[in-house]
Amino acid sequence: MPAKPFLIFPPPRSIARRKRRPFPPRKPNLPSLNQQLLRLAPQFQQLERIFEAERAEIQAHLSGAVPEKVLVLETVGSIQGFIDAVRHIQGMEWLAEWDEEDIPPDEDFFQDEQHPDKPLGGRLFLIMTNQQALHELLSLWRIYQENDQAFLGTGRAKWRDLFRQLRVIRPWGVQDRLIDTGILIAWRERVEARQETVKFETELWFRRNSQDQEERQEVFAGLLREQGGRLVSQSVIHEISYHGVLAELPIQAIESTIEHPNTKLVRCDDVMFFRPLGQTVVAPPADQPAGGFRRTAQPLPQGRPVVALLDGLPLENHQLLDRRLIVDDPDGWSAAYPARERSHGTSMASLIVHGELDSNEPALTRPLYSRPILKPDPRDFTAQRKEYMPEEVLPVDLVHICVRRLFESEGNQPPVAPSVRIINFSIGDPIRLFDRYISPLARLLDWLANRYQVLFIITAGNHPKDIVLRLPGGSLEGLSPDALEEAVVRAVAAEAHNQRLLTPAESINSITVSSIHDDACQAGPTGHLKDLYHSRGLPSLLNALGLGFRRAVKPDILMPGGRQLFQQGMGSSATFEPSRLSSPPGQLAGCPGTTPGDLTATRYFRGTSNATALATRTCASLYEILGNLRREPGGDTLLESHTAVILKAWLVHGATWGDSYAVYDRILRTPGNALRFREYAARFLGYGSVDKDRIFACGEQRATLLGCNSIRDEQAHVYSIPLPPSLSGVRTWKRLTVTLAWLSPTNPNHRAYRRAALTMELPTDVLHLKRQNVDWQAVRRGTVQHEILEGNLAAVFNERDVLSIVVECRAEAGDLNEQVPYALLATLEVAEAEGIAVYDEIRTRVRPPVRISPRR
């Protein structure tokens, strides 16, 4: 099929957003007033006792201090506008609001008589309150106890709704600060290693008032000093409501806290979370390099960098990278970064610049900007140390500084790489798994993406764990390749909760990438190593699994990440351990050599970091195509300011589930999950694997239109795709693929977080098409809506008929006063065998008229 250039959408029509009546949610069964009073009275009494005890203890140590508490209020169902009710009580400060999706039913709260065991949905409200505010809250409660319809005061009616739906009220406590943050695991490792001191991150509750911030930070610093510790540094980023502290304690204090966590430091009410530092670790390969590699001469890159790599320090003199990098090392990390330990940054740079070496693709035509954010781990005493994000700096602070340096001046220093539009982040924290609360680093990336209009491409993360098959008798004897594959898929699905996304993969504005079990290598398994998959192209067994924030589709896409082989475990025939050898198969990339001066070494690598690097490389290629399109007639509508969001939509546009969905459908679908199985499958498949051949050019029977614009709250834009006349009345397979992407401003203090909710309405009736792949509701939860519609029925239309796509915008997390940049791609294709000239017939009708200058 001959390649043809992409087409450009004519400018859309602008209309007012259509008002829709929201579908009323099913309300759960609520307890009677008497039931509610009996349930909550002990909880309120306990609160009073806790506040009195805390006040006495704190005042004994800090004269004059006013004790404050974070209250956790868990409701069944939602309460709109409750934040305003909080503000009417002096001494209460709104902190956060989170959705709860799986509240267990009980004898008081349940869905209805037909579904008594169905989990409930609700909210967690977090409020900072002092003693005076608590007394006022108790006063409201007592009024409600006497009469549930009584007037509670101006602006306080929502408290009645809260009391009616309140399931739990309690203080934010020790368990919240320590459990599920990974801090206890990290502290135990430090104790076993007998470190003298331990650094860790503490996220304090964010206060909007700078004086409050300083006062509460000093209270925390005083508690550190009492245990022989110190406050090393702090970071306050107002835009993401982040107040982080880098703290240090002696190992004795850490041991004591592990044994008895109910210390004054852990109970400090100014603390939101304790988190470990230095856990973003990249392990080196376990064997020798695969050998040297010399490729044919490639032209050297020209121009300014478009891609930035935040990773380990690459070996910039490696023959694959020589004169192809711009290494920015303002802090001089290279002095303590031996060449043999520059593994991860070198392999990522190699994959971005050259792709898989076995595929023999041309090198990027622009230099790659590289900034190290990893270092060799000084706690590692092996011959080749792991690379990690250093403990002496807060990760949020480090990334903030690095990205700001790209685009903003510092004193007399101009921005170092303002031309960058794509940032590769192939690093995840194996201890920080995503769990409801969006992490500070993900919040930072979301804000930076919107502020600088730059696209972050992030790894979903790896879970290189043993796979334990659940087989009768634990035996593999007589198991066919198909049966083994089925057992493996079931085993991975059973562990899905423990293989969640690694922070910051939940970032909503970024493209999150997982890997597929594929590569360009021609070799297969040898020796004792085994390929557990019978099908090619399924999601890798190393992948971290979605979904993302508020059940958005994550990962966004899958790219080749190399075939991961396994070896049978020693203890059980049904246990398989992932191989760490760098022998083929896999993805061949540059790496440091083991001898001084070896600048040609390569290895076979695998994992989501590889897939992320290849996604970044694909985006860099799309950038060059975009530059050519801007020189076409009508190309001035593809605004330079919208480059990042165009690339975001373009990359996802080539994603499809392909044959992989049938495998998961056959193995994992049950009567219990059938109704939501497509949403469930997205945990493994995201929007699917990217077919690069489809996103680089059109064909005779396939036309892709590309456009971008900016939209405001309550606005709608209508795009028209002219229909090819030759398709009318023809019974044939046809597909419409449409992708909408944007970079949303965020509100970290709102449960919805995403301030701009864009959606598109698609035509299904004109061509008699039906939705495929991801569930139609799930695609609307993030910042990419990617839809595939197919059909094979004949559709009759006239020459003037068009497919209309309506893009709408609404505010979702507070006011939305700014315009939101977005991009839209649409591809219409038919079966090649019909010979319908889809491309030419659409191109004729969308080509802008030639302007003829009048003669003088």
Structural class, by secondary structure, is: alpha+beta
Report the portion of residues in β strands: 15-25%
What is the gyration radius calculated from CA atoms? Answer: 28 Å
- The average pLDDT score comes to 88
Measured distance between first and last alpha carbons: 46 Å
The tally of strands reads 39
Q: What is the helical fraction, as a range of percent?
A: 25-40%
Placed side by side, the strands forming the largest sheet appear as 14-15-13-18-20-23-25
3D shape: globular
- H/I helix tally: 19
**What kind of sheet is the major sheet?**
7 strands, parallel
Poorly predicted tracts of residues: 58-66, 849-856
Question: Could you walk me through the main structural features you see in this protein, from its secondary elements to its overall organization?
Answer:
This protein is α+β, with helices and mostly antiparallel strands. The chain is 26% helix and 25% strand. The chain has 19 helices and 39 strands. A seven-stranded parallel beta sheet has the order 14-15-13-18-20-23-25. α6 (183-193) crosses α8 and α13 (481-494) packs across α16. The protein is globular.
